[in-house]
Amino acid sequence: MAKKSKYYVVWQGNEPGIYKTWAECQAQIKGYPGAKYKAFKSEAEARAAFKDDYFNHTTSSGVKKKKPSIIDIGIPKNTWSVDAACSGNPGLMEYRGVLTDTGEEIFRQGPFKKGTNNIGEFLALVHALALLKKMGDRNRIIYSDSRTAMAWVRNKKVKTNLQKDKDNEVIFQLIDRALSWLHQNHYQNTILKWETKEWGEIPADFGRK
Q1: Nearest in space to 84 (alpha carbons), one of 127, 111, 34, 121
Q2: Are 111 and 94 in contact, with CB atoms under 8 Å apart?
Q3: Neighbouring C-alpha atoms within 13 Å toward the C-beta of 56
Q4: Are 104 and 98 contacting, i.e. CB atoms less than 8 angstroms apart?
Q5: Phi and psi, residue 10, nearest 5°
Q6: What is the maximum span of the chain, computed from C-alpha positions, in angstroms?
Q7: Around 167, how many Cα atoms within 13 Å sit in the side-chain half-sphere?
Q8: Opening angle at CA 114, ends 182 and 205, nearest 5
Q9: pTM of the model
């Protein structure tokens, strides 16, 4: 009996798409941290799944596991979420802020050479706070998945082992500017922890894990 062919969907990998062989699929996910992929019995199923969210096609004990929506989680509307991404430690770092319920990007900075994820998370929070103060928006909630960055903002102090050099000098300038802003300004916006284990990746996530 001929072996039935499968179609492989790669949502996150070197080249997301639909592949007809395991070898082709494997080439897209090998060495890619946090790759998201799955095999389907037919091309029609694969095409429909590729257009959909990966989390709607993961299973546990045969039970379909759906990514929780913002409404399911109970997140208030009109909140912001911030996150950072860093390729290496240190490495190319960038950060951004988005609307939590829609994912619409509000700001993005970088990439910067020889940064760290914690520094990016910290800069993203201060960027959001400064932007909201400039807008006169005192009540908007900001979500972050970094306890370290939240502590740095709260204590107005950055504790990093990153060594300063000519490649990352701009990052240290941004840190100094952020700390200066925190010491010179008062903000009323609430910063809350995004519970990744319960809710999935924060909406501002760059999708590179």
Answers
A1: 121
A2: yes
A3: 9
A4: yes
A5: -115, 105
A6: 75
A7: 11
A8: 70
A9: 0.67
Contact 43, 18 (CB under 8 A): yes
Which tokens belong to 182? 């925190």
Edge to edge, what strands does the sheet with 105-115 contain?
105-115, 91-99, 80-88, 142-144, 191-193
What Å distances lie between residue 101 and 8, 14, 56, 74, 76, CA to CA? 30, 27, 18, 11, 9
- The model's pLDDT over 41-99, given as tens digits with 9 standing for 90+, comes to 899 888 988 888 777 776 544 444 555 556 556 677 789 999 999 988 889 999 999 99
DSSP 8-state secondary structure symbol assigned to residue 168: T
Nearest-angstrom CA–CA distance, 191 and 186: 14
CA distance 189 to 197: 24
Contact predicate 209/35, CB 8 Å = no
> Around Cβ 154, how many Cβ atoms within 10 Å?
11
